[in-house]
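[agent] plan:
  1. take the single chain provided in the ticket
  2. run structure prediction with default settings
  3. attach structure tokens to the ticket
  4. add a short note for the reviewer (M.T.)
[agent] executing step 1
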Amino acid sequence: MKKITLLVVVLSLFSSCDFFKKNEEEAPKVPKKDLVLGGDKDENGCLASAGYTWSKLNKECVRAFSGIQLMPIEPTDDATLCAYLLFDESGNKSELFLPNVDGSIILERDGKNKPWVYGDWQLIPLNGYQLKKAGKLVYSGDGEIGTNVTGTNDTEELPIEE
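[agent] step 2 finished; step 3 output follows
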């Protein structure tokens, strides 16, 4: 009798599991929405979330912040307020990326050691670069490529512990 009861219990367990499994399979499948990571490409195909923007000068997606950084003359610790420069191979054209401005500005120069100009914008190669708008100095930079750390360049020697 115990064997029969045990057999009935085991069979009922297997059949009940099979019942739930069949019900799951028969349930209508709802298509899942495709999750596209980095789906924020602009009209030129540049991936903005990765820091890319379209370069009119180079005709490709670039990371403007990998160019020459110009710091605002008005003191700020906010690196998002920096401007960035890219140059063409000849060095006679410069592309200026300004903060909070869509697109870029192409500045041109007539010869070596002359300023790059577009409208009332003027980029002067002096102690790195100085950017003026309508004659007023608004940005300057040391001419080094990449992001500069704001603040002092002084280094302090730390004592060595033994």
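[agent] step 4 note for reviewer: The mean pLDDT is 77.
[agent] ticket updated
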